[in-house]
Every structure is written in structure tokens, then in C-alpha cells.
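ingest -> validate -> predict -> emit
validate: passed (alphabet ok, no gaps, 157 aa)
predict: started
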Amino acid sequence: MRALLLCVGRLKEDYLQKACAEYVKRLGRYVSLEVAELKDEPEPAGSGEALKKQVLRTEGARILQRIRPEDYVVALAVEGRSYTSPELAARLRALEQKGRLVFVIGGSLGLSDEVYARADERLSFSPLTFPHQLMRVLFLEQLYRCCRINAGEPYHK
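emit:
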């Protein structure tokens, strides 16, 4: 599998950096994975809806610049489709045939309408909202779990 994980914002906490680095290292056996951090826009305190939309559009433009026309794009979103780990593993196995998979994690405000419009599907890990930095760790762990499942290797249930 060839994959690109696009993340708005950088990991600031050392423990999150270490967790992501560990999963990226483990995934090296299974996936040609690139993780790209894109600059997030500061959100002024008390900003209105118009300013929030502008922040999303600016971040969205950065995301869209990294996506190729032939990429299959999966936006991580609360309102996306949910899977069990075995179901997600099967879905990823099916998507491998589509070429490079691009997974997108938005910033603190989420993703722009333009990014959602470009996405081929939306993936939800839970109806709960997670900080985007923690979501990166959760995604990498689940990607690793799916790779192990697809390889027929044991993984904790």
C-alpha cells in the first residue's frame, strides 16, 4: 500500500511525537507511508464564522495542493462512515487497488468544504470529537492494526 497522511498542524507534545514515530516505524514493514504536516492558521480569539471559514479555506488550499488528481482521498470526519477494525482492514485492502491513498486530518476547526468535496469518502473513528493531534496517533495505530489483520498476523482485540 502507498499512502500519504496529511495533517494540519504539528505535534507539539513529546509523547505524541514518540507515539507517532513508533507507529510509523512499525508500519514500515507494510506500507510505503509519508506523513506530512501542513501549517495551521491561527484562529483569533472570539473570531466569527466568516473568519473561521477563511481559516478553513486557507488550510484546505494547502491540503489540496498536496493531492494528485489520481489519488484516492479519505477525509477523517466525525460524520463519516464507521467500521470495526476487521471491516476497516478489508476496506483498506480493497482500496489498495486504487493507487495512492491520501488520508486527511484537519486542524482544530476541521476541514473545508473544498476538501470534503475532493474526498472520495469520509471515515469516522467515533461520534466523539478528538483533538487533531491525538487523532493522528489513533489513525496510525488503526492503520497498523489493519495491516496486521490483512497480513494474517495476531493483534490484540
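The chain has one domain: 2-150.
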